[in-house]
Write a structure and sequence with these properties.
single chain, 5 domains
Length: 462
């Protein structure tokens, strides 16, 4: 009897080296894969892609043709930008921009004093760039210099100082000390200084006893800020040897940046205070903040500017006067602060209750809890809304033209009336240039806010 054959045994053992990974299908990788996933993945994507191509073809080539290919780059007058003299279709007349460049930067600022504006521009750039760089050292000192010292120096340089605030502050009361100038310094300066110091001391004696603990320190800080502000206001009454330049002579990019930077730097802290005040448990603080916010949000900015420029002087008593640009700055700051308050309040409402409970469990008082735990998270959540307000404020600076303040757009509109540059394309060149300037600033703010969001978005990092 034969023995059945033993079946052969096969061993399936993987070789020591791994087989190379197979590449993904050609249709899902590279440019073809990206196009199929984002441009031609569905009927709707195909239609949107075709519409985008058509829109690009309609808008971009004509703009490049007008602003670059057919543009005139050199010339000394309107004859250089006339088609009959050039012998071809003429696009942008860039010599018009070069001829009006000083007006665009300085407005009607005296030519001999424009170095002061250049110093202000340079100082602003030198202080702002390190403040925006995340890894730059000495952030605290840089912030103090930019937000505290730089505005005072810029104000003194641009105006020249020596504003005779004795008439500005006390003139409407009918008080006239009749004090003369001694060694370049008004003796009345010291009278005002003593008067303001006494007022600050009186406010401190009346207010501080009503606060205890942490609130007393807050009140003391507010009084210190008031004292510093009083010193700053009185310091501009000194004679620095600079020629006074009225704000009516300012214009162009200078006015645009002054209004925008002032509105931005004032609206954020005041907006935060108003948002916190609206959530306060004290009825007076709460309802005062609500009334302020709702009133200024309900009034158009152009109405505020018109009232501040033409109506407010009618209600001022005696010799009391306020500079026209200062009135516009205050109006812009008030409206921007009201809008900013609602943005910040939205961020505060987005913070879960557990954050408050956790802070209280650590023994933090209400002020420290808000400053160290709640407010940083709320501001991080509303960075897009904050920057959106900044961008809108920067573009709304063009409204001051209605009240005869010549910002960048106003200077360009005034330059259009120059008969030496009256060509068919001058108007389009000027508005196109203004659009480029506004786009650069607004797009820069937008991209920086996106980078800031990405850097602070720690909860989604892997």
């Amino acid at each position: 009897m034969s023995t059945p054959a033993t079946p052969s045994t096969f061993a399936y053992v993987a070789p020591p080296e791994l087989k190379p990974q197979e590449p993904a299908p050609t249709s899902t990788r590279g440019l073809i894969g990206w196009a199929r996933a984002h441009l031609f993945g569905s009927v709707g994507q195909v239609l949107l892609t075709l519409f985008g191509i058509w829109l690009f073809w309609v808008v971009i080539p004509p703009m490049v043709k007008f602003f670059e290919l057919d543009a005139v780059w050199t010339g000394t007058g309107r004859d250089a930008c006339l088609p009959e003299n050039v012998g071809r279709p003429v696009g942008a007349c860039w010599p018009f921009i070069w001829a009006k460049w000083n007006q665009i930067l300085y407005g009607f600022y005296p030519e001999a004093e424009r170095w002061r504006v250049n110093v202000v521009y340079f100082m602003g750039a030198v202080l702002l760039v390190p403040l925006l760089v995340p890894k730059a050292p000495f952030k605290r000192a840089n912030a103090i210099a930019f937000f505290g010292i730089y505005p005072v120096i810029a104000f003194l340089l641009l105006t020249g100082g020596d504003l005779d605030l004795r008439n500005f502050i006390l003139g409407w009361t009918g008080l006239d000390f009749g004090l003369a100038r001694v060694a370049g310094l008004r003796v009345g300066f010291w009278v005002q200084f003593v008067l303001v110091a006494l007022i600050a001391a009186g406010i401190g004696m009346l207010v501080c006893p009503f606060f205890g603990g942490e609130r007393r320190s807050v009140a003391a800080t507010v009084l210190k800020l008031f004292g510093v502000l009083a010193l700053i206001l009185l310091a501009v009454d000194l004679d620095f040897g600079l020629q006074p330049v009225e704000t009516r002579q300012w214009g162009g990019l200078l006015v645009t940046l002054v209004i925008a930077v002032t509105g931005i730097t004032v609206s954020l802290p005041f907006g935060i205070l108003l948002a916190l005040g609206r959530r306060s448990d004290y009825p007076l603080v709460k309802y005062s903040s609500i009334i302020f916010i709702e009133f200024w949000r309900g009034v158009p900015l152009i109405t505020v500017l018109f009232f501040a420029t033409y109506m407010l002087p009618l209600f001022l008593p005696g010799r009391f006067t306020i500079d026209g640009l200062l009135r516009a700055l205050v109006g812009v700051a008030l409206v921007a602060s009201a809008y900013m308050a609602e943005v910040v309040r939205g961020g505060l409402q987005a913070i879960p209750k557990g954050q408050y409970e956790g802070a209280m469990a650590l023994g933090l008082r209400s002020g420290f809890m808000m400053r160290l735990v709640v407010l940083p998270q709320a501001l991080k959540l509303v960075i897009p809304g904050i920057v959106n307000n900044f961008i809108g404020l920067f573009k709304d600076t063009t409204l001051v033209l209605i009240v005869s303040i010549f910002d960048l757009l106003g200077i360009l509109r005034a330059a259009f009336t120059d008969p030496n540059w009256a060509t068919p394309t001058t108007l389009f060149t000027g508005f196109g240039f203004a659009g480029i300037v506004y786009f650069v600033f607004c797009y820069g703010m937008s991209r920086y806010s996106m980078a800031l969001e990405k850097r602070l978005d720690r909860s989604h990092r892997h």
